[in-house]
């Protein structure tokens, strides 16, 4: 083998999804290992609309590990990045020491260059760290020839990242062990299970959230009695009910549990001392609109959930999407025309009756919502086979974007 080809980096690119929790994770019992105080359940969103793409290159010519996020070089010594790198390399060495013949062990000592981009705003309350760490771990595992259970490693990057290792409906089982070996994600149902389910992300602001979730949840654990009650007395039965609602495709049960759990999560933020406010006046208006809409029809057609930020995530069934989107456009009038306002899966236009407008009876909030991402449940991480999609060039450095 020529000296030159020995130095050519081994390059792998993968993509991973965002997930939205419907039973929320908030609070750790172990900061370092990222072990939660309660189990949680999420829906993986489709990568056609929301994803992180990561390229990892390894080469013996690299002097050190390096990482670029959304075009900017970041600090690779970040503790959570180091945890993921260390764990994957440890498993790769273990495979080599166990004498796995299928493993090319020459690359185990090589340094890596990592380049990652999101196709959505980072840190705007869309779980960017979840997709990011899931993608990092999945790609590193491919580069180093590591197989098997990876959600426990992704968890050490960002708790909710373990749920982005699977598609469809996913639970993160909190586990009991001190070493966290049983705190893992598990698929409840695949993304094909409930094809009528639709998800609308109402992006209220693409700014960074005022208090990051890591520091926010720590303060909650230290100061909120409600959080302790929630983890011990509320979530266990809610998890069982939610899994059953998903398996039965019972939208009413799924929707009501989703809204109640979102509200309780934000109540624990309010019960934190000093209190944390993630919801904005726009968020509160969306909550009112959903309840009035459901009341008008005498059934639960739409549900909301909010993470640690002001963006609403709406769950509904396919047949209700056009009318509900029209309602959002009416009560949150925007400067952008329909094409720019709705991104993702196409939405048919619909008209809304005067009767419905009056039943909602809210004051419109111009420019309250920047845009809507229309999506559905989707698959877990995957390898991107097309080499033109690599984010790193053949030299192992970020490709120059024109």
UniProtKB/TrEMBL annotation:
Domain Diphosphomevalonate decarboxylase-like N-terminal: 16-185
GO molecular function, one term: ATP binding
Enzyme class: lyase
Example of a GO biological process term: cholesterol biosynthetic process
Assigned keywords, A-Z: ATP-binding, Cholesterol biosynthesis, Cholesterol metabolism, Lipid biosynthesis, Lipid metabolism, Lyase, Nucleotide-binding, Steroid biosynthesis, Steroid metabolism, Sterol biosynthesis, Sterol metabolism
Protein family according to the UniProt entry: Belongs to the diphosphomevalonate decarboxylase family.
Protein's UniProt name: Diphosphomevalonate decarboxylase
Annotated source species: Seriola lalandi dorsalis
């Amino acid at each position: 083998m020529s000296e030159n080809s020995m130095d050519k980096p081994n390059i792998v690119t993968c993509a991973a999804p965002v997930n939205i929790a419907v039973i929320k994770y908030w609070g750790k019992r172990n900061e370092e290992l990222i072990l939660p105080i309660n189990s949680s359940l999420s829906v993986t969103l489709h990568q056609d609309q929301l994803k992180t793409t990561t390229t990892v290159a390894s080469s013996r010519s690299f002097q050190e590990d390096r990482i670029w996020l959304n075009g900017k070089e970041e600090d690779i010594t970040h503790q959570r990045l180091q945890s993921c790198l260390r764990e994957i390399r440890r498993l790769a060495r273990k495979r080599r020491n166990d004498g796995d013949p299928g493993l090319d062990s020459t690359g185990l000592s090589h340094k890596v260059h990592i380049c990652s981009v999101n196709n959505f705003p980072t840190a705007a309350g869309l779980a960017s760290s979840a997709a990011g760490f899931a993608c990092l771990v999945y790609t590193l595992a491919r580069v180093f020839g590591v197989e098997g259970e990876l959600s426990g490693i992704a968890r050490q990057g960002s708790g909710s990242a373990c749920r982005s290792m699977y598609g469809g409906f996913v639970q993160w089982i909190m586990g009991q062990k001190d070493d966290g070996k049983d705190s893992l994600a598990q698929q409840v149902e695949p993304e094909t299970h409930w094809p009528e389910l639709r998800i609308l992300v109402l992006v209220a602001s693409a700014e960074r959230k005022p208090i990051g979730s890591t520091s926010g949840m720590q303060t909650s654990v230290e100061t909120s009695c409600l959080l302790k009650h929630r983890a011990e007395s509320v979530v266990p039965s809610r998890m069982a009910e939610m899994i059953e609602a998903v398996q039965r495709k019972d939208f009413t049960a799924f929707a009501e549990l989703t809204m109640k759990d979102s509200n309780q999560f934000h109540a624990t933020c309010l019960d934190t001392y000093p209190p944390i406010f993630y919801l904005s006046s726009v968020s509160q208006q969306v909550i009112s609109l959903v309840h009035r809409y459901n009341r008008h029809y005498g059934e639960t057609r739409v549900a909301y959930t909010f993470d640690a930020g002001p963006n609403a995530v709406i769950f509904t069934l396919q047949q209700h999407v056009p009318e509900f989107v029209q309602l959002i456009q009416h009560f949150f009038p925007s400067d952008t025309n329909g094409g720019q306002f709705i991104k993702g899966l196409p939405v048919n236009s619909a008209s809304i009756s005067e009767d419905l407008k009056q039943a909602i009876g809210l004051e419109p909030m111009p420019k309250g919502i920047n845009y809507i991402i229309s999506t559905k449940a989707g698959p877990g991480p995957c390898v991107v086979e097309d080499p033109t999609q690599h984010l790193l060039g053949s030299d192992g450095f970020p490709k120059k974007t024109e």
